[in-house]
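Reproducibility note. Readers wishing to regenerate the assembly model reported in the main text can use the exact inputs given here. Chain order matters: entities are listed in the order in which they were concatenated for prediction.
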Amino acid sequence: MSQVAEDIMEISMGPQHPSTHGVFRMDVRLEGERVLRLKPVFGYLHRNHEKIAENASYLAAIPYTDRLDYLCSMTNNWGYALAVEKLAGLAVPERAEYIRVIVAELTRLQNHAGMVGFLLQDMGASGTPLMYAFTQREKVLDLFEELSGARMMCNYMRFGGVRVDCSPEWLRQTAALVAAFGGFLDEFEQLLTGNEILMARTQGVGVLPQELAINAGVTGPGLRASGVNYDLRKVDRYGIYERFQFRVPLGEHGDVFDRYMMRVLEMRESVKILEQALRDIPSGPVMDPKAKVRGLRPKVGEAYARIESPKGELGFYLISDGTPNPYRYRVRPPSLINLTVLEDMCLGQNIADVVVILGSIDIVMGEVDR
Amino acid sequence: MLDGIAVDQVFVSLKHWVLGYSPAAIEPAVSILLTILPILLVFPVLFALTTVLERKGLGRIQNRYGPNRVGFFGILQPMADALKSLTKEDIVPASADRTVHFLAPLVLLAVAFLPYAVLPIGRNMIAANLDAGVLFFFAIGAISELSVFMAGWSSRNKYSLLGAMRAVAQMISYEVPLLLSSIAVIMAAGSLNTVDIVNKQAGFSGIFPHWYVLTPWGFAGFVLFMISATAETNRSPFDLPEGESEIIAGYYIEYSGFKFALFFLGEYLGMFAISGLGITLFLGGWGAPLSFLTWIPSWIWFFAKLLGLIIGFIWVRGTLPRLRMDQLMNFAWKFMLPMALVIVVSAGAWRFLPQGVTRWLISTLFLAVAYGLLARGVETRNKIAKRTYRFAE
Amino acid sequence: MTLEEIKNRLQSGVPGCQVELVVNGSPSGQNSLLIDRDHGFAAATLLCDQIQLDFCSNVTAVDWPDREKTDKIKTKQTVDGVEKEIERTIKTRIPGYLEVVYHLFSMSKHLGPVVIRMRTGNRSDDVTVPSLTPIWRSAEFQEREAFDLYGVVFEGHPDLRRILMWEGFTDYPMRKDYVPPPDDELEGLREQ
Amino acid sequence: MLGLGIVKGLIETARNFLGSYVDKNRLVTVQFPEERLPVAEAARNFPFLIYDGVDPEQGLRCVACQICEKECPPRCITIEKSKDKKPDFVGKSQFYPAVFDIDVSVCMSCQICVEVCPFDAIRMDNEFELSTTDRFGGLLWTKEKLARPNEHYLAIHPTEAAEVEARRAEEKAQAEAKKQQAAVTQ
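Running the prediction on these inputs yields the following structure tokens for the assembly.
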């Protein structure tokens, strides 16, 4: 580490650091505790997911999408399945669309709860909010295990529907969880939202102006915290989201507190969506009968599909050349692109804030490095 | 039922009984030894119990068990921890300054045991009845910063240096409110001698004791004292020197094995010492809380109150996130310091006004106005405010 | 705002810019505009400012190696006096190139994807494309990734370094003709 | 009023502290070796081969068609066809795998092999206490280690197994009927 001037200190935060949310490194130049320069370094978890998917068939790529953002495997599957359905022009039966919305919103609940828990952990609360969040997350993961067989690596969606139908018992358990989730959120907010130390540590910290957010392609709760009304569930209306009444929370200041509140308010909206979806889920097939399980050969062409994953806009860009393997398979990683503005937000703040700002962006290294 | 006094003085009479057997020539040495030995035994055992209590308390706060595998309900967990820290390899970084690196935990430990000399644990159970007991306590308390900086500097590690800088800045800046909040008590008691302070609070009016904490300025002083005590011992909302999530472990990052355990022992002993002083100044030392309870021995009351304060520390640690360095300093100098001065004024008003309701009203008025103004100052400086959010359809 | 209108706006707005509509065979119907790389930057600024495509969602590179197109053509040939139609297959070698694809959206007007593509000269020495990071900051990391995994050099990129592979790495792993180095440890496992 | 939010937070943790002694669904910890959560019926860990009847060699359903080997994303299945054939449950003579290895250290339990297998020969087990010290040999499961009786499949995935049983029984009945008809017309 070069020692430029006597009082300038260069330290490397990561890749092995308690709060970089995975193997992520930041070359930070400090003057005392104030940040002068911050260069993120990626690549420690790079497995070349895209090359693997290009050498495998369309079906074989699905279990790999679980490992992109390994906290939200269901929404990753959905993004990829949506892209292939657009590419090959497959239809999805009604019940499957409803199940997709249900599991996606469940994923959003457990991801946002986890994110708030990790953010408080970075702020020094010794594990209490994280444990409350993870208690709820366990309940959601048990539902996923009941449905798809695995807690985190669900491998559940297929092109033209979902792999397994959900039993009425499963729907009852989901309804019970959704009913109790409101209570958990009230307790969580009582512990956190009014807390003066939390407000002092996050309000006015890591401010992201609206123009920079749009220009730097920040998407998801981070963008809406800066006041931009852009939620793909409302913009693209993919799946059957236009059938549900829910609102999109918007912040004004675009600082860490707003990003925290976005997650909490979005959890409340997801609970509303889940209640409506569970109420009017139809019966019927969950898989397009004529969709073939293996050996899918879409016609030559390309397609770009994107969904509102809990981290932001997760896009899949596929080019097919008629063979069973995709010619080009590209994942648009919301975590990586949201990190573009990390340095802009951290300049001038001190080192305790760098950790909090990184936590508020909510990255998962599996998706950043692919 | 045993006569109350006998049980109360059981340790004192035990000591005199043993003294009787020692030859006259070395009698003063043996008597000193007999007062030091219990302190060296009782408080490390209390440290062991507190680690279990802390981990089980934090566990239960987080809806999980705490350690419950080693021994019955996890009681033997500290033995396991001690064994682990003894057998762990003691790694010293190559570029470390070896002697200072080795001395740091020893200095911390020596300094951690000294304050117990002036703490009245029970009726005439005090190691050294100094006239300036409180002054001695604060003088010794200031040395622990030296050992923290020795540890941070000698490990030659950037994070430990950051941690050491933070530790020194924090301890020095919270020493001032600590002293000022105890000045009100010294003023009211009229003496620096801890035994006098406890005796001043010994009387009862009706069934309530004359504890200083039950007066308005005393309660505010006690709250201020405990906040700066948390900061002094680097415990939770103020555990910036060992901010795990920011600078990994602060000044004891390069310590492993038994030296690491010594740091923890030093920190916990500092916590017990400063809680002991808090009990002596505000909670009436070893006095009984209600008049009809005086038959319980005095030292049991001291340890009961100590246990209460420890539970308070654990409770706060389980709830609050950490402050940032500049907020910590602002809070000390711009909220705690003026508040402590107002407490002194309020204690003065309490002292010279006649008894009765007016005295209560005036001193609480002082405190309430000061609190309102200073709290608004903190909120505007940190720009914290409740927020409402709009929703798009 | 159909693709045709955008194409005309581009041709009128940016003098001398060749814009070609690339039809997309899949039912997704996302056709794209192939813009020549010399006027790429000017075209992109027009798209961003005048057509308010203020959000560049996805930037990626695609490797099109040299291809052999074999097509049968029927020619009339007189063979020893008799006129016969014979089929001859001719192999035309299409030189490969690296292609960069940008998916642009408008956050203010909730406009759908406008896909623009730029192509490099060939796959070996002439691999430069104008960088659009000065226009959309979201392209910064994605262009660095395209450089790292495909070898497309972006002129005007503020900080063009490898983003995923380590500095000492020389090859471009995502190209179709990339041969990974023998992984000794793995090989050892196979023989056992 | 400064400090009110902190006090509310303290009350919240106190409620959880007391709740964990009183309220059953607050304290959710399961003491693993002594108490065990019931395994979800659809839970999956590593694949296993099914054989009917008693003898694993004879009853193995797998006909070494190698579809699963081709479709397996991490390619952890290696199959070598046998030279001779043996009759399967409907009497048709089929190949059988001489070698059927799954490298369990590579397998990511994604159950695509189960999905693509046309002969219901491979299913996902939910056994998870599988740690071994031997990294190479221990985790390369051969045919013998993979084979499990059909009863095991009926035990761990009851509903799914019931459907498969029904379908196989019906196929068997059709084959029988066709055979009788063929015998009659002869």
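We highlight two features of this model. The mean pLDDT of chain D is 89. Residues 38 and 139 of chain D are 26 Å apart (CA to CA).
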